[in-house]
Design brief:
42% of the residues lie in helices and 18% in strands. By secondary structure, it is of the alpha/beta class. Helix 7 links the parallel strand 6 and strand 7.
Length: 248
């Protein structure tokens, strides 16, 4: 079972990347589980035609201890296993603690033994690397970490902070930094800026994802590009990235 966590500045396009990677991997015959680690619980919307699914935390609040896997694991497009950790009600608790509780619930119910996913993708909130949001890095849930970034200053600043956290934890045998996913914003000299930043972080750029209107059109339909426009060059970029992520 290969496990990859995706981090990056809020709004950088992690969920779009992760969902398209999930679809590309399913095309190759893999069983994929995508776990959204954000209180907004919106990581998997493009895999469910835009319809939100109940989060683990919301189901736990509603059903208390009477929970089964069918309540929290949903079959999305292509058979992708969709999970949203969720979080506490706004202003009423720690979102990071919510992630820990959701992960514990999945393990307690035997989710991984039941579904036998070949690949688990964690879509983690923003650039937060403390508490529960660092769980995929520091407690062995993920094998590798990818950081999604553009050439914008604040995006790269977040990427650098995340890379430092990953490297600190990797010394203890936890997840290792696989590299950067360059989600282009088409700013001036962006390619050079990102390549330089990757070198300073002592890592590499895994893939450049172009800025393309087809992404918005697909999301308006509640779909990934890979499903909405399978013959597009943009879909091929996600397929290529998925192949790179499978490499050791």
């Amino acid at each position: 079972m290969k496990k990859i966590a995706f981090y990056g500045k809020g709004g950088i396009g992690k969920s779009t990347c992760v969902s398209n990677i999930s679809m590309a991997l399913v095309e190759q015959g893999f069983t994929v589980m995508q776990i959204g680690c954000d209180p907004k619980a919106d990581s998997t919307r493009n895999l469910t035609r835009g319809d939100p699914i109940p989060s683990v935390l919301s189901v736990m609040r509603e059903k208390k201890n009477d929970i089964c896997l069918d309540d929290i694991v949903y079959c999305g497009s292509g058979g992708i296993l969709c999970v949203e950790a969720g979080g506490p009600k706004p202003g009423s608790g720690c979102a990071g603690r919510g992630i820990i509780t959701a992960f514990e619930q999945l393990e307690e119910l035997g989710a991984y033994k039941k579904y036998h996913p070949d690949i688990i993708l964690y879509d983690v909130l923003g650039d937060v690397v403390c508490g529960g949001f660092a769980l995929p890095i520091r407690q062995g849930y993920a094998d590798e970490v990818c950081i999604v970034t553009s050439g914008e200053m604040m995006s790269l600043y977040a990427a650098d902070n995340i890379s430092q956290a990953v490297k600190n934890y990797s010394k203890r045998g936890y997840a290792a930094l696989k590299g950067l996913i360059f989600n282009a914003k088409n700013i001036e000299n962006e390619d050079e800026i990102v390549e330089k930043a990757a070198a300073e972080m002592n890592t590499k750029v895994l893939s450049r994802i172009n800025r393309d209107p087809i992404v918005q059109k697909a999301e308006n339909a509640g779909m990934t590009v890979v499903e909405y426009a399978p013959d597009s060059s943009q879909a091929d970029l996600y397929r290529k990235l998925a192949g790179i992520l499978l490499e050791d």
